[in-house]
């Protein structure tokens, strides 16, 4: 990384220094409002007869709960002690009800941000389908959005309880069925110490929650239609997240080697134009993915300011952060079209260079439109 690039980023970081500590009022207010709207719409959807109103309520519930679930990403970047009890509160209103406790994400996302693992075969959140010129993986990923609710329900209703009696099954559940990742064959490491204690608490409480709901439905206390609506909402969330993950996070152009900083950021994407669709697929700052990869510890509400400062530096004399300019992909619809085009072209084939290579983005040569 050239000195001029480093100094430009340092200047921006100094201007953002006061924003790195998360504001609990913003986090808690957003969590409470989003989850309240989501669950209120969900309950209303079960009690109205009009199909149009049901559909509207389910749409509102899906978006609000998608926003709530997205906080699992923010929690991964919080330091211990930053927001006491926030993770527990999130688990109660969202993690357990949607069979998505934070331990399925915890630790894995940090691997994705590591300069050693980003874009390599060890990165659990990276599918190099563009570099390979193949639509197989993204299509399979989107199809699985419809299977996902069945999978997580089975994991906590059946597999988790049974694994208590089978060490072999337990090992499989922990390593193969406990990660919210893009690579289906990814095997995670077994956590230890405090992380394992938190894992067990979240897993046990999720099992208790889902079995309690099943018991209430079987006894007629809750309507069986609840399961259908839950499936619709969770599938919708996974579809939205799938479009975002495949078209609005990375170019997926790495061929597996360790990337330089510039190549790493150049491979990331921002949806930098405001639109309803952008906000729909990228809540809680997820439209600023390239910005987030430069400042992963910056809270979501500060990313727009960071983006403006980085753009100012990028457009300065000499364009010291020119690779950041290339990360701006406008809207999700244009991003999807561009990813389809690049995948058809199979770009880049070997366009990346290892971290020891020349400091300017080697992959830029494979994208003459930037």
From the spread of the alpha carbons, the general shape counts as globular
Strand content: under 5%
Span between N and C termini?
20 Å
Average pLDDT taken over every residue = 90
Description of the molecule:
The chain has 18 helices and no strands. It is mostly helical and 370 residues long. It has two domains: 133 residues, no CATH class; 220 residues, no CATH class. The longest helix has 26 residues. The two termini are 20 Å apart. The C terminus is likely disordered.
Give a nutshell description of this structure:
With 370 residues, this protein is mainly α. 58% of the residues lie in helices and 0% in strands.
Please write out the topology.
Blueprint: H1 3-15, H2 24-47, H3 51-69, H4 71-76, H5 86-95, H6 108-113, H7 129-132, H8 136-143, H9 148-163, H10 167-176, H11 193-218, H12 225-247, H13 261-266, H14 276-281, H15 289-294, H16 303-314, H17 322-325, H18 332-345
């Amino acid at each position: 990384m050239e000195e001029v690039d480093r100094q430009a980023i340092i200047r921006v970081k100094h201007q953002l220094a006061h924003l790195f500590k998360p504001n609990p009022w913003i986090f808690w207010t957003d969590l409470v409002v989003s989850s309240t709207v989501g669950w209120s719409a969900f309950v209303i959807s079960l009690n109205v007869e009009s199909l149009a109103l049901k559909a509207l309520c389910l749409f509102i519930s899906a978006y609000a709960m998608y926003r709530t679930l997205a906080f699992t990403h923010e929690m991964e970047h919080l330091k211990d002690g930053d927001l006491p009890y926030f993770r527990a509160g999130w688990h109660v209103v969202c993690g357990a009800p949607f069979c998505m406790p934070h331990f399925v994400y915890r630790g894995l996302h940090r691997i994705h941000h590591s300069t050693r693992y980003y874009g390599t075969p060890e990165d659990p959140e990276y599918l190099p389908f563009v570099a390979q010129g193949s639509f197989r993986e993204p299509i399979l990923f989107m199809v699985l959005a419809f299977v996902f609710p069945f999978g997580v329900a089975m994991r906590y209703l059946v597999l988790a309880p049974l694994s208590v009696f089978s060490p072999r099954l337990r090992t499989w559940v922990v390593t193969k069925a406990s990660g919210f990742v893009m690579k289906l064959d990814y095997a995670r490491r077994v956590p230890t110490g405090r992380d394992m204690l938190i894992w067990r608490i979240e897993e046990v409480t999720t099992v208790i929650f889902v079995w309690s709901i099943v018991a209430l439905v079987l006894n007629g206390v809750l309507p069986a239609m609840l399961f259908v609506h839950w499936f619709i909402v969770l599938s919708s969330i996974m579809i939205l997240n799938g479009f975002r993950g495949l078209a609005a996070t990375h170019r997926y152009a790495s061929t597996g080697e360790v990337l330089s900083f510039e190549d790493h950021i150049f491979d990331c994407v921002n949806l930098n134009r405001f639109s309803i669709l952008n906000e729909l697929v990228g809540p809680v700052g997820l439209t600023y993915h390239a910005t987030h990869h430069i400042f992963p510890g910056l809270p979501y509400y500060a990313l727009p300011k960071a983006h403006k400062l980085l753009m100012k530096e990028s457009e300065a004399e000499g364009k010291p952060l020119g690779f950041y300019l290339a990360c701006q992909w406008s809207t999700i619809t244009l991003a999807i079209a561009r990813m389809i085009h690049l995948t058809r072209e199979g770009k880049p084939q070997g366009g990346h260079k290892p971290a020891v290579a020349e400091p300017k983005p080697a992959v830029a040569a494979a994208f003459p439109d930037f």
